[in-house]
């Protein structure tokens, strides 16, 4: 089981890429501080892709599924041995309980204070504020003032230049896709450039240590 305290600070989001492109990114992540990847369920062949990536890189990279919306999808993802699931929306208590029973970390999406509070009450491990960049980093502090500090992930418009601002505001985690990598380099499986982009991101990131 992946304990929340051990959950990587940054999760790389890969949406709409084929297996070769996803593999190139994950291979480039090995040995870096980017230790978590989310493969979205609205990518073609997502489950087969997840299964292959887990088989090859699961010992080095935390592999999860994103854009998970239904219990049926959850069951497919768990069968593919994901360590976590994310959703752009709130998840039902049934889904949260099912994941907990199978030791899978849950990261449902939320926008309002009510949704955030309800998700934690229903058993979410981490709540994803989405779309975070539209709300701004001060939104994190505004939420924490009445509700207290919670394990929050920011997703949506997060990149090399603003991620540290959100983490300094109190977010525990960030999910980033196009904010790290050049899309064409992913499509072309250009591992040399992908590694350079990871190095640049790591140099800009405030790791809080």
Automatic annotation (TrEMBL):
GO terms, molecular function: lyase activity
Gene3D superfamilies, A to Z: Aldolase class I
Superkingdom field: Bacteria
UniProt key word Protein transport: no
Pfam families: Aldolase (PF01081)
Assembly mode: Homotrimer.
Species this protein is from: Anaerorhabdus furcosa
Keywords: Carbohydrate metabolism, Lyase
The protein, known as: 2-dehydro-3-deoxyphosphogluconate aldolase / (4S)-4-hydroxy-2-oxoglutarate aldolase
Similarity comment: family membership: Belongs to the KHG/KDPG aldolase family.
Lineage of origin: Bacteria, Bacillati, Bacillota, Erysipelotrichia, Erysipelotrichales
Keyword Ion transport (UniProt): no
Pathway this chain belongs to: Carbohydrate acid metabolism
């Amino acid at each position: 089981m992946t304990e929340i305290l051990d959950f990587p600070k940054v999760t790389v989001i890969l949406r709409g890429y084929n297996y070769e492109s996803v593999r190139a990114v994950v291979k480039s992540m090995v040995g870096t501080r980017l230790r978590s990847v989310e493969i979205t369920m609205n990518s073609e062949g997502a489950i087969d892709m997840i299964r292959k990536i887990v088989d090859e890189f699961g010992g080095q990279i935390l592999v999860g599924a994103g854009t998970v919306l239904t219990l049926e999808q959850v069951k497919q993802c768990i069968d593919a041995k994901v360590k976590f699931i994310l959703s752009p929306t709130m998840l039902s208590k049934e889904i949260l309980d099912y994941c907990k029973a199978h030791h899978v970390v849950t990261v449902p999406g939320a926008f309002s204070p009510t949704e955030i509070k309800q998700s934690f009450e229903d058993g979410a491990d981490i709540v994803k504020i989405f779309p975070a960049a539209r709300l701004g980093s001060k939104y994190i502090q505004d939420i924490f003032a009445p509700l207290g500090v919670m394990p929050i992930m920011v997703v949506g418009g997060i990149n090399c230049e603003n991620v540290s601002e959100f983490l300094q505001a109190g977010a525990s985690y960030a999910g980033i896709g196009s904010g790290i990598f050049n899309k064409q380099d992913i499509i072309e499986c250009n591992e040399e450039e992908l590694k350079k982009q990871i190095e640049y991101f790591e140099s800009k990131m405030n790791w809080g240590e």
